[in-house]
Specification:
The chain has 227 residues and is α+β, with helices and mostly antiparallel strands. The chain contains 8 helices and 4 strands. The protein is elongated.
Length: 227
């Protein structure tokens, strides 16, 4: 043990104190990142397992950078070992990909000894992510949603819905038409933009009456929904 501790000063080795500092700091910073991720998350795709994976990724990368150090041979060995890993879990939200890269950057900074830079970067990115969500940066003011409804086969749905759409919508576009074999009905999917001040419940009632009393759904968060 004493021999191992004495080697800590060489450029290719590291001591127990440096190891614990790296692990503790990378854990603390990724926990901060995970907290702000949870506070700033919007949509339907929140996953606890993704948060845990982000924390573990940051810690793992910091240890990898610590092991590599300035040893090129170790770098090529680790690249070869990691190349056999295949990740097949799709990430639907582009924002989640950004947080994974942030966790990797934190791990790299901590593992290479840039502790102050890692702390500053974590706080800066976390506050930026929270601010982007808090102030709705980049969000449009349009009330664009998905409208799904079922109508009887043979109904002239374009003519039946024309007046209702004219009174309540700025824009609308038919995305898909599907035949439901179980109910002998058509399922229509529209992308619609509601006019200002339109009551959604009243609009759905008008659409239901015009469509012959079928099922009507109004879905918000179009970017998070598979049609």
């Amino acid at each position: 043990m004493n021999g191992l501790l004495q080697q800590a000063g060489s450029p290719d080795t590291f001591g127990l104190a440096e190891t614990f500092i790296t692990l503790a700091l990378s854990l603390a910073l990724t926990l901060v990142l995970a907290y702000f991720y949870r506070q700033s998350h919007r949509g339907l795709s929140y996953s606890v397992s993704f948060v845990h994976a982000t924390i573990l990724l940051g810690i793992t990368v910091s240890v990898i950078m610590l092991i590599i150090g300035s040893n090129i041979a170790r770098a090529f060995t680790l690249v070869g070992a990691l190349s056999i890993i295949r990740f097949r879990n799709p990430i639907k939200d582009s924002r989640d990909v950004a947080f994974l890269f942030v966790a990797m950057a934190i791990g790299m900074a901590v593992g290479t000894g840039f502790y102050l830079q890692a702390v500053i970067f974590t706080l800066f990115v976390s506050l930026v992510a929270y601010g982007l969500t808090r102030f709705d940066v980049g969000r449009t003011s349009m009330r664009e949603v998905l409208l799904k409804l079922q109508v009887p086969q043979g109904l002239d749905y374009q003519g039946a819905l024309k007046d209702t759409f004219y009174r309540n919508l700025r824009e609308h576009a038919l995305l898909s038409v599907e035949t439901l074999s179980s109910t002998q009905q058509l399922e229509l999917v529209y992308s619609v933009e509601l006019k200002g001040g339109v009551d959604e419940a009243r609009f759905m009632d008008e659409v239901r009456q015009a469509a012959g009393g079928g099922r009507v759904l109004l879905l918000t968060g179009q970017e998070n929904i598979d049609v």
